Amino acid sequence: MIARTPEKFEETGIRVRLHTPVDEIDTRAGEVRLAGGERLPYDTLVVATGAAAVTPAVEGVDHAGVFVLRNLRDAQDIKAYIREKGCRKALIVGAGFIAMEMSEGLAAIGVETEIVYRGKLPVRRWDPEFGTMVLSELERHHVSFLPERDLEGIERGADGRLRMHTSGGTLEGDIIVLALGVRPDTNMARQAGCALGETGAVGVDEHLRTSQEGVYAVGDCCEAFDRVAGRWVHVSMGDVANKQGRIAGRNIAGMAASFPGIVGAQSFKIFDLELGATGLDEERARGAGFDPASTIVWGSPIAGSLNIEKKKLGLKLVADTRTGRLLGAQAIGHGGAVGRINALSACLWAGMTLEDVAFMDLAYAPPFGGAWDLVHIGAQVLQKKLT
Description:
The structure is a single chain. It is built from ten helices and 22 strands. With 387 residues, it is of the alpha/beta class. The strands form seven sheets. Strands 6-13-7-8-9 form a five-stranded parallel sheet, covered by helices on one side. Strands 18-19-22-21-20 form a five-stranded antiparallel sheet, sandwiched between helices. It has a three-stranded antiparallel sheet with strand order 1-2-3. 35% of the residues are buried.
């Protein structure tokens, strides 16, 4: 998506040069060398090269009709290809939130869609109980889900359609979308001598400075500090990139500022379901040195007396058994899920315990939930497990 045009940038004194590749960063000379040979001197440099879509190392991924979805241009190319070729069937490889949103978009324009995934259930970050609910939602909207299949290759069939070879058999479609996640684009930063972190993204400090004097890194190419896990991680989220850019800009302008980190909040929608997650699941919590326990509770996104349509809301909480500290949360439902996750993200930010969460003051009215919200109930249920 375009947040601001080059003309708008120009109005504030910022020059934008599109279609201008950088060949080299010379940190000793303090210069950036462009593809045409022009050299631009700098006092301060910001590396904001983002992330690139993961492409599997199999034959055929470069065929026409095989796409990734990373930016606006990718989306435009996919839409144009569907129109020009009259695509009637799509294959999506992967089952994360980009794959889910893509399947909804394709289904909305009448394209038959099959999701191919190496795991058993979609949306791996969420608990299997929630993944099963997502699977039902896909099936309800006639999106096929083919689990436990590895992509082995792609070729073009005799009739011009694409043929996908998987460990579970061969599939055919008119268009293929690879939705296998992203990796940080660190090529320029590495070439400039910037140290990478343990995640493989560019290492930065709390001011977004890299290991090279006068060079900052922000956004999907660099690491961020996870306040819950207590370690540096790599996330690829637009809101995090925006905040990092603001902090780096303040530091460059002489206003000392620190990026406070993240708690890993994330949300998306698939047809009539909304999902949110924040913090750590049990596996990541153990990896961070905690002794986690969890619970799942089910309820209503609004007061039960008003829930005529019997809409469900599920909430999972994860906490440390030794201290009772809240470590993570996941939610799914036909409304109300993301709002609960936003509240619990604030709890993680503040380092709250289950005792704090169990009785915290939330805005109550029947159209938005019960007097005892599912957040309160989940915290109290998990508390009992720990005692």
